[in-house]
């Protein structure tokens, strides 16, 4: 077992280099810690140097190998440079976790042109920029694995029209690029988290937090997901255990996306809510 109580073999990613975009906080940081604990050399990127510095310190403190690069994934040239940096420092990239992203809750009719563009540029174009640059610089010749982080937008995404559209597009890109790049030995998958308790949620306006707390219980586990639960799925899809999986999107949402308002009757549970084993002391 690794320091993070992982069920995976401690040397699973020995000699592998992993890039986690948005690895300075939340899900990305948890994933970066997990890959580092399993033997990988991890690169993390984001827009904020201080956030990255704190993450590097945390991973070094756990004995992991990590490098950070300031990079806005919306900037194509910066993303190409990021791939060059990985090449200069580590020689190759094996795994890309496309996690950087964000949005703000707002009714569709109020979203400004710049607000719409910022969210599409970040979550769709930025995600594509990183995949394309990783393929051209690294994966084309030696193969690799990509896991994109999207969201639960299967029934539309009220108050999140911009990100719902962008994430649905990335779901489709995942399938398209799995087809185009399979012959190069590249697997492309995605995870679709439901509502996960991360530091990212705290960036939202306090006025919408009660709504998020309530929505976080609308699933079969009757609670929000944890960072560890998403990281475990990212690790699995990036690992050789998923060698026969490509073009797939794994929903990590406690059943939120299939939640039926009429069941259970009167909201009664037979068993207590599922616990996250990783979070138990
Ligand atoms: C039911 C809830 C389900 C929750 C499931 C999902 C959860 C998560 O994803 S957790 C959190 C992930 N982290 C974040 O979302 C935080 C990071 N967010 C962002 O960085 C921004 O949302 C961003 C994508 C817009 C960042 O772009 P950036 O270019 O840095 O942003 P600017 O500040 O320059 O703004 C550009 C544009 O967007 C408008 N805008 C930004 N925030 C809001 C807001 N809260 N409400 C309305 N409009 C917003 C901003 O005003 C700018 O437009 P103009 O005003 O027209 O210039
Ligand atoms: N928490 C949840 O319930 C859910 C989260 N998600 C998605 O999971 C991912 C991680 O979210 P979470 O950990 O919760 O939130 P965080 O806000 O903690 O993580 C987002 C990370 O992305 C980085 N980032 C944002 N924009 C850019 C950019 N343009 N270029 C480079 N890096 C960027 C941020 O760093 P910086 O600001 O320094 O650039 C930050 O480290 C996001 O894509 C999020 O939308 C999806 C479904 C549910």
From TrEMBL:
Instruction: Mark the transmembrane ranges.
Output: none
Tell me which family the UniProt entry assigns to this protein: Belongs to the short-chain dehydrogenases/reductases (SDR) family.
Which cell locations does it reside in? Answer: Peroxisome
According to the UniProt record, what class of enzyme is this? oxidoreductase
UniProt keywords (A-Z) are: Fatty acid biosynthesis, Fatty acid metabolism, Lipid biosynthesis, Lipid metabolism, NADP, Oxidoreductase, Peroxisome, Phosphoprotein
* PANTHER family reported for this sequence: PEROXISOMAL TRANS-2-ENOYL-COA REDUCTASE (PTHR24317:SF7)
**Where does it mainly reside?**
other
On assembly, the entry states: Interacts with PEX5, probably required to target it into peroxisomes.
Please describe what this protein does.
Answer: Participates in chain elongation of fatty acids. Catalyzes the reduction of trans-2-enoyl-CoAs of varying chain lengths from 6:1 to 16:1, having maximum activity with 10:1 CoA. Has no 2,4-dienoyl-CoA reductase activity.
From what organism does this protein derive?
Answer: Acanthopleuribacter pedis
Q: Name one GO molecular function term.
A: trans-2-enoyl-CoA reductase (NADPH) activity
Catalytic activity of the protein: (2E)-octenoyl-CoA + NADPH + H(+) = octanoyl-CoA + NADP(+); (2E)-dodecenoyl-CoA + NADPH + H(+) = dodecanoyl-CoA + NADP(+); (2E)-tetradecenoyl-CoA + NADPH + H(+) = tetradecanoyl-CoA + NADP(+); (2E)-decenoyl-CoA + NADPH + H(+) = decanoyl-CoA + NADP(+)
Q: What is its EC number?
A: 1.3.1.38
List GO BP terms, alphabetically. fatty acid biosynthetic process
Q: Name one Pfam family in it.
A: adh_short_C2
The name this protein carries in UniProt is Peroxisomal trans-2-enoyl-CoA reductase
The answer on whether this UniProt entry bears the keyword Phosphoprotein reads: yes
Q: In which pathway does it act?
A: Lipid metabolism
């Amino acid at each position: 077992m690794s320091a993070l109580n992982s069920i995976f073999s401690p040397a699973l990613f020995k000699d592998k280099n992993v890039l986690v975009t948005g690895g300075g906080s939340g899900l990305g940081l948890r994933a970066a810690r997990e890959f580092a604990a399993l033997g990988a050399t991890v690169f993390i990127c984001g827009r904020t140097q201080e956030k990255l510095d704190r993450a590097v310190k945390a991973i070094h403190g756990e004995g992991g190998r990590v490098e950070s690069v300031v990079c806005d994934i919306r900037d194509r040239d910066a993303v190409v440079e990021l791939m060059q940096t990985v090449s200069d420092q580590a020689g190759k990239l094996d795994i890309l976790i496309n996690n950087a992203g964000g949005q703000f809750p707002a009714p569709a009719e109020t979203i400004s042109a710049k607000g719409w563009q910022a969210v599409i540029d970040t979550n769709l174009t930025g995600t594509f920029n990183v995949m394309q640059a990783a393929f051209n610089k690294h994966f084309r010749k030696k193969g690799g694995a990509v896991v994109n982080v999207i969201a639960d937008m299967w029934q539309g995404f009220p108050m999140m029209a911009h990100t719902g559209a962008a994430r649905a597009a990335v779901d489709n890109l995942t399938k398209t690029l799995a087809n185009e790049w399979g012959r190069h030995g590249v697997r492309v998958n995605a995870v679709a988290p439901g509502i996960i308790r991360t530091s990212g949620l705290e960036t939202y306006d306090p006025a919408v937090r009660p709504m998020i707390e309530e929505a976080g219980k609308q699933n079969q586990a009757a609670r929000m997901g944890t960072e560890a639960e998403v990281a475990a799925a990212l690790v699995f899809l990036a690992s050789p255990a998923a060698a026969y999986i490509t073009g797939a999107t794994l929903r990590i949402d406690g059943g939120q996306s299939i939640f039926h308002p009429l069941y259970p009757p009167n909201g009664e549970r037979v068993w207590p809510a599922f616990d996250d084993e990783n979070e138990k002391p």
